Amino acid sequence: MPPTDAPPISSPDHAAPDYGQMPLRRFGRINWLGTATLAEREIRRFMSVWQQTVLAPLITAGLFVVVFVVALGSGRGEVMGLPFVEFIGPGILMMTVIQTGFANSSSSLISAKMQGNIIDTLMPPLSAAEILAGYLTGSLVRSLMVAAVISAGLALVVGHGPAHPLLALLYIVLGALLLGGLGILGGIIAQKFDHMATLTNFVVTPLSFLSGTFYSVQALPEPFRTLSHWNPIFYLIDGARYGFAGVGDAPVLRGLAVSVVSVAAVNGLCWWWLRTGYRMKP
Length: 282
What we know:
Elements: H1 32-47, H2 50-71, H3 84-115, H4 119-122, H5 128-158, H6 165-189, H7 193-209, H8 224-228, H9 232-245, H10 252-276
Helix pairs in contact: 1-5, 2-3, 2-5, 3-5, 3-6, 3-7, 3-9, 5-6, 5-10, 6-9, 6-10, 9-10
């Protein structure tokens, strides 16, 4: 026999839980801890293999300088009023930044999908915007690390620092965010590593090479000169060149506007795909 002082079954203290009601977010409107944890995981991931993720892009950038400046540019005159090494340096820097930003987010997503542990990212109480912020932080930190080393080397070679340092930093950040977002889109679309290699070889690399990295687009014949101005990466490289050397092919405000709009559009699409779970299953 139950004790006489036991509460009745209908007591509110013993009411059955409502399994149809979603639990409340007990960490506030934004899950700062979860977002920071995801960002830290992304940073730790590429730092665990820093020889491939940080050192390798620096060596590649150095090889570009050796080939184009020492071997091919020793007899070249000025370009846009600049010595060839000072003209080509910011282009190589931004090209390395955007390739690094794309590689970081795309490799993280496609690896998680192929290994089947993407569920570790999707199951925690993180919104689409928080997941996007975590991945973009990893791309941004990795790109800034590479850019800082190349910028220091460039300053030693040309003998002075950036002409507009804040503007140069802004374009580096925009480049990392734009290509980091494109890397997320690529990682979502791709179902295996071959798909990602196709995107890298036929989309990212051509866009970065054909955007004024090694030449002024004013030297191109039509219609290639006009087509170059439709390439958003052109404005990133041109803006970085203006930030470092003080000269550029396009107006600064136009370049900033195109870059900001491109970053917003790409990452807006990333947010929507993450929110709907598009192609996120392994």
